[in-house]
Write a structure and sequence with these properties.
six-stranded parallel beta sheet, 38% helix, 2 domains, Rossmann fold, 248 residues, binds adenosine-5-diphosphoribose, SIR2/SIRT2 'Small Domain', 11 helices, alpha/beta
Length: 248
Amino acid sequence: MTTTFPPELISFLRASSRVAVLTGAGVSQESGLRTFRDAQVGIWAQYKPEDLATPEAFERNPRLVWDFYSTRREGAGGAEPNTGHFALVEMEKHFDQFTLITQNIDGLHQRVGSRSLVELHGNLRRIRCSRGCGVIDEWEELPEVVPACPHCGALLRPDVVWFGENLPEDGLNAAIQAANTCQAFFSVGTSGLVQPAASLAFWAKKRGAVLVEVNYEPTPLTEYVDYAFHGKSGDILPDLVRVLGDAK
Ligand code: APR
């Protein structure tokens, strides 16, 4: 069953040049990667976040945290991008200024060639010095034992944002800039619960952008959006890009 889009949304998008998209774990769900909060199967359902994704957890038990991210890294490495990821690459071609902001660390948007990509929460492929001496690297294989920084000797850690940590400044600024200047803001596959990513849609709306939600189910954002499409992003996004292409 294909998605039907209100004609006024399609004509608005056809006349727009600046679009921002925020994605969350839902966009990678059809690639077989678990989301964080979906009940029962979500990653956090099995672990207490404070036991794994915080600087304190890494301090307390670096090997446990390292193993957790190694497992996720293997999962992401073995996952194939889905039709939603590819549709976002196509979508980018329809707008002069298109910014894809992702909360995902699985690297799938990067792998399919999304160009104007902002990785708000980092990327599993990269690791960096935990003391912040600036060493950052992409490792094909992660060693069993948590390696030490070749420069300062501190432990290396995944280059991802943990609970309680600040987001990379340049990424956050780029995301805020895109939210503040876009004509349409899409929230795709995210529960919209984690700040500051969850505020981007509201900042866009405040600046007059049209808000569109593409998510499997309603979220706290749903009541504020102009258009909500509830279903699989891997179905809805390709339908949208097809209609946009037809309209050209
Ligand atoms: N298509 C569209 N949406 C989907 C699909 C799908 N196939 N499958 C699941 N979803 C939706 C779920 O309904 C849920 O609302 O995706 C959303 C995923 O929400 P979360 O699991 O909360 O993931 P996310 O919003 O990305 O979490 C944000 O929280 O834990 C931190 O840093 C972590 O980046 C993460 C952030």
